[in-house]
Amino acid sequence: MSLWVDKYRPTSLAKLDYHKDQANQLKNLVQCGDFPHLLVYGPSGAGKKTRIMCLLRELYGAGVEKLRIEHQSIVAPSKKKIEINTIASNYHLEVNPSDAGNSDRVVIQELIKTVAQSQQIQSSTQREFKVVLLTEVDRLTKDAQHALRRTMEKYMSTCRLILCCNSTSKVISPIRSRCLAVRVPLPSIEEVCSVLAGVCRKEGLLLPAELAKHIAEKSGRNLRKALLMCEACRVQQYPFSADQDIPETDWEVYLRETANAIVSQQSPQRLLEVRARLYELLTHCIPPEIIMKGLVSELLSNCDGHLKAEVAQMAAYYEHRLQMGNKAIYHLEAFVAKFMAIYKKFMEDGLDNFMF
Amino acid sequence: MSKLSLRGKASSSKLSSWVQPSFGDLLGGSGLNSFSSTKGALAAESKPKTCPSSADVSGKRPRKRKGDPPASKPQFFSSRQTSQEDQDEPWVDVHVPQSQAELAVHKKKVEEVESWLRVQLDLRSENKGGAVLLLTGPSGCGKTATVHVLAKDLGFQIQEWSNPNTASEYRTDDSFRQSFDPASRFNSFHGSSQTGAFQEFLLRANKYNRLQMTGDTQSQNRKAILVEDFPNQFYRQPGCLHDILRRFVKTGKCPLVFIVSDSLSGDTSSRLLFPKDIQQELGIHHISFNPVAPTSMMKVLSRIASIEASKNAGRISVPDKTVLDQLCSGSSGDIRSAINSLQFSSFTDNSLEKGLWASKKGKSAASAAKAPTRARGRSRATKSTDKLEDSPAIGGKDASLFLFRALGKILYCKREGYEGYEGSEVPKIPAHLAEHQRDRLLVDPEIVIERSHMSGEFFNLYLHQNYLDFFSNVEDVARASEYLSDADFFTAEWSSRSTMLQYGSSVATRGLIHSNSSRAQATSQSSVGFKPLHKPHWLQINKTYRENYLSAQSLFINFCLAPINLVTELVPYLAKLSKTMRNPAQIAFIQDVGSLSLKRFPGRLKLEALGDKDPGALDFDSENEDSTQTIKPGTSSSSGDPTAEPALQSNQEPGTDLPASQPQPTTTEALLDEEELLIEEYDSD
């Protein structure tokens, strides 16, 4: 028994639940024969990957769904062995090159070369190209992106690339200009609701419309999250009630409590406690950027007026440093300390005004 | 004995004849040549009584005695009478402490060692096992001297192990004219390993009492075994030593004393040879010595100076007090080097000396004149900063600080008021910046970092872990944390990293010091009191983060998700769903990482107290490479890539694997010592 997310994932372009126009366009793209490199981007949980898999199926038929996980090892020019996991079918190869860290350039070059150098056997009945699907392209180093650009041109005859990322802002423009950009926006609340309802119907469950709406809002229109939430709701309580609590992940709750702790008291001792909580979050694998984002949104809801602008500006400042620097905790803590200082001053000023 | 010294003579003369020509060629019979020949003659002919042979000496502890003059300190028991005959004898040996009063070691320490020895020697008959004592401390702080003085006072003999010179011929020399020489007596030893020989030595020293000699009246069977020198094998495989010790503890009859010198620069032989768990298992008593305090060193130096002056008036110019002060501060608590440099600097016919010391005198006189009103404790503190600039030309030793003290210097940031100035002279900053007015710092942060033998980055981590305890208001904390953030930001770009590291640490330390406004004035400082220091969590945290991240990827690879979505969405929700299809590893991971206990205070983080003698974690850069490999199995860093640095902690455990909160009697005692020192300094002005 697999998760609903996987179980009810649409497998062909025709079956997609939303953005049907785009699905049609993709279908036409496949049918007209010449297939460009694609750059698929959009927020997490919008269905990029689903769409790509549908597209591949459209291209090659059901054969793409026979996936195998391969463990490849590549020897870099510096004689260093790089190990990376790939997911492949007979027709395509999926790899997340940012897994290789700083050696992603080598991974990209080697993998694409291997794929591109082998011709399809029956080019009459099959497409004459294979597809390499690269995920998290926005996390590639600049070096690797430039390597990608050259590789793209070189193996155009035997290989197409589909790049998948959340934002194009970190993809260098030469790559952007060589690809057909396909944006996959988040589904609307209604679309999420209808998907949820459809899934529940298939499961033989009755989902109240209010709850579906509630879930959709809470998930931030992230469909994967919405489905996971829905399934967690099912575990928590069935039959559903319209106003039941939607389970949140532990770390979100924990983060909110951390934010509350920051707001409720501002002192060095409290900062020490907050630091311990931040460490706790980090050991649970929550990336520092996400912690920062979560903290800011929680803290902002406690601020008003001009304080909001100040906090947001500060958050941006430290977020930038977080990205540049080595040790996240310095910057997270500096942000928290700064917030404490500002907030304390704000509260004290407010108190003064109140008294006079 | 006669055989022994004969061979000693032979080898020493061979030694000198081997050395001499090279000097002769080089210098063509200049002063140095005659010097070496006198030394050779001295070693081979003079005083056969006191010193078995100088070859013994040169073979003995070459590791520790590098800084000493060529014919270094032969034996401790050389008496004063003989030394009068010989002008060239090092003063270190001439003035070996003869009684507890002469020891430069703190009285409490001596008492501690004494009481241990007393207990062990007296209880020895009932006590079945052998007891082990471990003495540690920086070189030249009087560890060995203490043991020898106590041996005399308590009336026991010392059998000392020293490494055999070569594999085939080896000899142990021990003090008090007691010789143990398996090589001459037990030929079966030839070719056996040092380890084997060491074991045999322990066994024999343990089993057999020394022969009764005439003149030995009392305490015939009281003795202790002293080991200062470890067979090299033990450094490679400490396990061998531990096995031997286990056996010794079971069967031993007499106390066994190990003396290990601390060093700051990562070479932690005491930690390697005697890890904490072994210390506990074997009941090893650990006493750690501090560097010799300046006052007691002054006492010793002036005593020696006056004795020497009276002994041979005219031939020796006794340095005046400022010079002694300089020597004292320059030796950073190493009394051996202090005495050596005292001897060197007091030769009248040393033509270099005049020029060398003249400038020093001028300077120190100036600094003395600068603050004549200061109390003693203050001036001592000032001197320690002064000496940074003009460390003495003779006998200057690289000063170094243990991490604990280095952190303390930054975090307590002692300042001094402008007492010595007239009211108008006090430098002021403009009124609108008045909040930034600070009194003068007594420490130089850059030098503190340099002396902590630690990369700035690492030092910052330690500071970051500990700084919050020293701050009292949030605005200050905000500024301080911003400086730390700045410091990290400085080193972001790997191409400029090596240069920026220094600036980064400088910004961090100075920023921390300056932003602590509650400690801005010299007068407002003493309120903080003692705070325990801790080891940084970050490395451990970062490591777990990475490991979990990777294991998430490898465990849930068939979900085909980007890792971020995996850890923030899938795994936490999987924890909420009860599904049965997963394998045990996945379930364990989900339980561990997916769910957070919502307790207020997370239990995972244990504070690791930082002891005063703990070295920092091991060297950063050397670990970069292999750690990236171990931490990112699926990846690798292109050769030595500096940006791969966050993963620097894989081997870091050996440095920090102290059990978190285990009671450490010696450490806490040392902490108290430190605290006493602080109070004393405050009281004194």
From TrEMBL, chain A:
One GO CC term on file: nucleus
* Ranges of residues in domain AAA+ ATPase: 34-190
Q: What molecular functions are annotated in GO for this chain?
A: DNA binding; DNA clamp loader activity
Question: What does the UniProt entry say about where the protein is found?
Answer: Nucleus
Q: Which keywords accompany this UniProt record?
A: DNA replication, Nucleus
Q: Name one Pfam family in it.
A: DNA_pol3_delta2
- Major localisation: nucleus
The organism's place on the tree of life at top rank: Eukaryota
Q: Which InterPro entries match?
A: AAA+_ATPase, DNA_pol3_clamp-load_cplx_C, DNA_Rep/Repair_Clamp_Loader, P-loop_NTPase
Q: Which family does the record assign?
A: Belongs to the activator 1 small subunits family.
Q: How does it assemble?
A: Subunit of the RFC complex, an heteropentameric complex consisting of a large subunit RFC1 and four small subunits RFC2, RFC3, RFC4 and RFC5; the RFC complex interacts with PCNA. Forms an heterotetrameric complex with RFC2, RFC4 and RFC5; this complex has ATPase activity but is not stimulated by PCNA. The heterotetramer of subunits RFC2, RFC3, RFC4 and RFC5 interacts with RAD17. Interacts with CNTD1; this interaction facilitates crossover formation.
Q: What is this protein called?
A: Replication factor C subunit 3
Automatic annotation (TrEMBL), chain B:
An example Pfam family from this entry, by short name, is Rad17
Where does this polypeptide localize? Nucleus
**Top-level taxon:** Eukaryota
- Sequence ranges of Polar residues compositional bias: 75-84, 627-641, 648-668
- This protein's major location comes to nucleus
The record's Gene Ontology cellular component field reads:
nucleus; Rad17 RFC-like complex
Which parts form a coiled-coil structure per UniProt? none
Query: What Gene Ontology terms describe what this protein does at the molecular function level?
Result: ATP binding; chromatin binding; DNA clamp loader activity
- Stretch list, region Disordered: 37-90, 363-391, 612-670
GO-annotated biological processes: DNA damage checkpoint signaling; DNA repair; mitotic DNA replication checkpoint signaling
Keywords of this protein's UniProt record, alphabetized? ATP-binding, Cell cycle, DNA damage, Nucleotide-binding, Nucleus
Q: Where are the transmembrane segments?
A: none
PANTHER family, from UniProt?
CELL CYCLE CHECKPOINT PROTEIN RAD17
Q: Which family does it belong to?
A: Belongs to the rad17/RAD24 family.
How is this protein named in the record?
A: RAD17 checkpoint clamp loader component
Q: From what organism does this protein derive?
A: Astyanax mexicanus (Blind cave fish)
